[in-house]
Structures are given as structure tokens and as C-alpha cells.
Design a protein that fits this description.
By secondary structure, the chain is an alpha/beta fold. It has 10 helices and 10 strands. Helix 4 links the parallel strand 4 and strand 5. Helix 8 crosses helix 9. Bound molecules: 3'-deoxy-guanosine-5'-triphosphate (GH3) and magnesium ion (4 copies). The site of one magnesium ion has 5 residues, from loops. Its EC number is 2.7.7.65. It comes from Gilvimarinus algae. One of its GO terms (molecular function) is diguanylate cyclase activity. This is diguanylate cyclase.
Length: 302
């Protein structure tokens, strides 16, 4: 760990930084609170050992400023001071200190305290990692690992705004599995889940651009956003999806319209400058999907 030692006494600075180095850490030193603040501006540290009585800013004031500056990023700050009143201890903790040691402090004590704080810092890192993982998980649909509806809407809205008033078209496709209720009833829910994963892969195989978005919009309904794509492009992708699902070749022996699993696709395209909102074009794609269903399924309408 990189440990900052703030101490105005040269003798103590020397001895304590020796302890820090012998414990296997890197020691940075500051002679005053002001110097500590300056150093922190461009050097991140993992822990601070802080004297209290110093000319200029004292350790409590310096700590308050450091905590303000670090915001929600917590690092351990330990006071090491000659001030042994209970009231000083209280002030130190209040100022943002995590521990309060009274001089003289032996090498063994300071080493043990550093170890204890290091354990808490490890826990902080673990929590941060878990939080990041949770954040990522909450954006995905757990079955298909594609964007869930909420995240799709957020990301699509970002793309929509990004495209701004460009002269390009944006397209949306709504894709719905045909007679999927019958599929589930006949093959069982686990098979239905596997089928949805295969359909996801089939759709994904038709999306090649980094900005294309794929989301699970409902049970057996998917949505695709194609930025920079006009009606011709949307038609190509729809045809590709229809073919890819056919190629997946999933048996559906009770389907009234085909012996294999098929999908219906509804698409809509509009130029950024049309004045339509993203919701408008999603609704238009939904209406096109309805037409595809009512024209016999296993087809696309744009
Ligand atoms: P249509 O061709 O008109 O779309 O008919 P459909 O049967 O596909 O449509 P409907 O909306 O009646 O049924 C959708 C079915 O999708 C019902 C539901 O049990 C199933 N379903 C929704 N989500 C899941 C899921 O996560 N896993 C599985 N296995 N089935 C699901
Ligand atoms: Mg001092
Ligand atoms: Mg339905
Ligand atoms: Mg369906
Ligand atoms: Mg449906």
C-alpha cells in the first residue's frame, strides 16, 4: 500500500516512515497539512497516518478537508498524536479519522493497525466489485443475457439523442415468436427457455454494427434498434432474422402454421429529422408486427 505520513517532527517522520517501509509498504511524507493536501492533488494514496499538532492546518482540519475532497471514496486515516484527552479523541473521529493512537507508538502497534485498516480496505474493494457486477446484472435479462426492457429503452434513447438531427434514418424491429404458447404447452417450459436462447442467437447473428441494440421486450418478444439504417437496411436485417431462425431448425410439431419455430417481425424506419419520438417508432414497429401476425406469421412487415 501507498501510505502518506503527515508529521511535522523530522525525527518522528524518519522513524515512522521506516516502520511503514519495513512493514512492506511505500511511505510518502508531508511536513504539514498544506503539503499533504498538495501531494494528494496528483498522488492517490491508500492510507494516511496523520499527526494532529502541526503549524498551519492541524491534523483534524486537514482530515476534514481530505474527506470533503475524497467524497465517497473512503481511505483509512489514522491519527498518531500526543494529545491524549478523551475530548481530542472524539474530535479526531468526528473529523473523519478511523483510529486514534497516542504517542509514543511502537513499531508493532503501527504495523498491526496498518494491517487492520488494510483488511477493511480490501472489503471496500470487494464491495465495489460486487456492486459493479450487480449493476451489470441488473441491466441484462437473466435468461438470454441481452438487455432487459428498461435498459434497452435507456440505451435506445441515448442512441436516438446522439443521432440528433442527422440526415440518417433509424429503424426499430419488433420480433415475436409464433405460436410460442403452444410450443411451451407441448414441449414444456425448460424447452421453451432453450428455444428463446436459440432465437436470441439467431437474431444476434444478424446484427453486425457495434451500435445495434438487442433487447428482450417481453416474454417471447424481442426488440432491435438499428441506428443509421433505412427501410432497405431494416428489410435486409428482417430477412436475415427470418432465415437465421429457419436455420436454427427448431421443431414445433403442434404449430398451426409451420412444423418449425418461426418468428414474425414488424419494422419501422424514420429519418431523425421527422419529428417522431423513439416511442412513436417503436409503436409503429409494433403495428407492423401485428400486421405480420395477421397476414399469416413467419414473415416481416415494414
Ligand atoms: P402468437 O403467434 O400470436 O405470438 O402466439 P403466442 O402463443 O406466441 O403468443 P402468446 O402471447 O399467446 O403466448 C406467449 C407465450 O410465451 C406464453 C408464455 O407462456 C410464453 N413465455 C413468455 N415468457 C417465457 C419464458 O421466459 N420462457 C418460456 N418458456 N415461455 C415464455
Ligand atoms: Mg506535531
Ligand atoms: Mg402474443
Ligand atoms: Mg408469440
Ligand atoms: Mg408475444
Amino acid at each position: 500500500m501507498k501510505i502518506l505520513l503527515v508529521e511535522d517532527s523530522a525525527t518522528l517522520r524518519h522513524a515512522m516512515s521506516q516502520y511503514i517501509v519495513e512493514a512492506g509498504h511505500t511511505a510518502l511524507v508531508a511536513e504539514s497539512g498544506e503539503q499533504a493536501l498538495q501531494l494528494l492533488e496528483d498522488t492517490p494514496v491508500d492510507m494516511i497516518i496523520m499527526d494532529v499538532e502541526m503549524p498551519g492546518l492541524n491534523g483534524f482540519e486537514t482530515t476534514t478537508l481530505i474527506r470533503e475532497w475524497l467524497g465517497s471514496h473512503w481511505i483509512p486515516i489514522i491519527f498518531v498524536t500526543g494529545m491524549s484527552d478523551d475530548e481530542d479523541y472524539r474530535k479526531g473521529i468526528e473529523a473523519g479519522g478511523d483510529d486514534y493512537l497516542i504517542k509514543p507508538v511502537s513499531k508493532m502497534i503501527i504495523t498491526a493497525k496498518i494491517r487492520a485498516m488494510e483488511r477493511i480496505a480490501d472489503m471496500r474493494d470487494q464491495l465495489n466489485r460486487l456492486n459493479q457486477e450487480l449493476e451489470a446484472l441488473s441491466q441484462l435479462d437473466s435468461l438470454t443475457q441481452i438487455l432487459n426492457r428498461r435498459t434497452f429503452n435507456e440505451e435506445a434513447q441515448k442512441q436516438w439523442l446522439l443521432a440528433g438531427r442527422k440526415q440518417t434514418h433509424t429503424s426499430v424491429l419488433m420480433i415475436d415468436v409464433d405460436h410460442f404458447k403452444l410450443y411451451n404447452d407441448h414441449y414444456g417450459h425448460p424447452a421453451g427457455d432453450r428455444c428463446l436462447k436459440s432465437i436470441t442467437e439467431a437474431i444476434r447473428s444478424c446484427l453486425h454494427r457495434p451500435y445495434d441494440l438487442l433487447g428482450r421486450y417481453g416474454g417471447e418478444e424481442f426488440v432491435v434498434l438499428l441506428p443509421d439504417t433505412d427501410t432497405a437496411g431494416a428489410t435486409r436485417v428482417s430477412q436475415c432474422i427470418k432465415n437465421a431462425v429457419a436455420k436454427a431448425d427448431i421443431a414445433h410439431e403442434v404449430s398451426p402454421s409451420a412444423e418449425r419455430v418461426t418468428v414474425s417481425v414488424g419494422g419501422a424506419s424514420c429519418p431523425q429529422t421527422s419529428g417522431y419520438s423513439l416511442e412513436d417508432i417503436i409503436k409503429a414497429a409494433d403495428r407492423a408486427l401485428y400486421r405480420a401476425k395477421h397476414s399469416g406469421r413467419n414473415q416481416y412487415k415494414i
